[in-house]
Predict the 3D structure of the following.
Amino acid sequence: MASCDPKFDLEQAFSKGIASAISDEAAKGDPQIKASNDNKHGDFQCNAALAIARAVGANPRDIAAQILAATPLAALGTAEIAGPGFINIRLGDSALHTMLDRVCMPDLGIEPAPRAHAIVVDLCGVNVAKQMHVGHLRSTILGDVVARLHERLGRKVFRENHLGDWGLPIAMTMSALKRQKRDLKSLTLADLNHAYRAAQLESATDEAGLEAARTRHAGPHRIIELEIQHGSALAAEQDAKATLLRLQAGDAATVAQWQQLIDVTMTEVLETARVLGVDLTNKHSRGESFYRDKLAPTVQAFIDAGLAQVNQGAMVVQFSDRERPLLIRKADGGFLYSTTDLAAVHHRVNTLHAGEIIYVVDARQRDHFRDVFDAIHLIGWDNLADGTQAKMSHLAFGSVLGTDKKPLKTRSGELFTLKALLDEAIQRGTEQVKLRAKQTDSPTEGTSDQEIADIGRAVGIAAVKYADLSGDPIKDYVFDLDRMIAFEGDTGPYIQYAHARIASLLAKSDATESAISNAAWIFNHVAERALVLAILAFPATIKNAADLGSPQRVCSALHELANSYATFYQACPVLKAPDEATRLARLRLSQLTKRVLAQGLHLLGMEAPNRM
Ligand code: ARG
């Protein structure tokens, strides 16, 4: 099937030209095809001649002329040499027509690019009994989009929600709840969160306080008082440890309570995922507890392979290039977060047959993943049965900050929960849509309250998600609802609005569906060509975004497309086009733009309302 990617076709053609004019060796390099900055000079340029000329010590214009003479361009367009040796290329109309026809097909020109092996996306990763906060927002949103992109290319994807559902923190929470005599049946996640924090504070502050009192020679009364408190903390800790033992031993009542904690947590997490429009359900949960019986054998495997050593009673894996070892078993025999992650890789490679594992996790865990990946290489657990090696990567993201550049707070000063934040975004989105609906001639004038609420929700969610997805993930970003929700600028609502405007335009036209889809392409105006090029860039963007794990690329391609459409719409009247053929061609281009925007929004997990 014909390609719809002009850049790719030009790369192919110029590589052939370079091979026959210069050498096969030179053709191995990047032919350096770039979109032109200035469409007066052409649509693309090839900059390869300069580097090749430098390498062989020749005149770059001569080299450019030789390459151009040997490049099979005829089907694509025309080219001329400019400046010190650039080759400016203008695509021919018939090449553009063929490519546009290809993008008009139901798959929008995005061809499947399956892989032999499945891909695991490790996302969300909330901790049971702890409130899901804005940090988890990023993992869930980014991970969902990375998964969607791979799925769109026909790849088998496992979304793995590696819940923190095992170990002492959970046991501490359970034991704190028991001391508070709380009825587990009526608990909310907020209650669990309080119990969790209380349990943590109890053990941490008492010990620290006692230590401080002793070293600072506090009066005997103070020390005794603290010792009593510390005693109760120790008792709490012992109770937590006993709870953990019962849990580990599979004691039915303890396990049932533990399951209740998970259920309370997951009900809220999955509800949030639903509101976010993220594909995350119970079937994606495979928490740390899943690996509990694999931890001792994991450590044993490292010992047997001669890769683990005893260090102050603990078991560690040492690396040749750094001091920091990876702790895999504590001196008291307990296992760690890292032990679980090692066992999880084993499962993912051997049972899920994953050829790639993408961890969408906070950047602060960078060292952890570096150590885990290196330990896995050492023991060879990344080797698939067919001899290929699984690729593991950490898609690390930064923090979400408030407008004061500090961790995000609510108006009342508490840390934002994810739910509160989304509620606010939806409310603000709805206000925006309501405001517009009041204007006469607005497409939403007279819309029912229910429909306004639905559109407002879609806008609020897109605002939050787009802000999260459109930047470099590693950077911290400021959560500024005012900016995010705007219908102008680099925002989700701007792209939704571009889509909705085209929908209204199409609704106003009386042309039939078949008249539009059979219209012959016509483009004379530079704004039309620019729009066509923005459309044609889309299929390749999806493939690159998937392969590089970069939702950001999808955002910028859509932003570019929405901008190109706005310029086109200004310059080229659609409904009032000079003649019928031009009107139909512009309607067809508008309709294709709308489809591409809708597909892009869908891949970003955002809705594309037809009215805004
Ligand atoms: N529960 C962890 C946390 O909140 C995140 C889990 C990430 N995934 C993993 N395989 N370690 O920090």
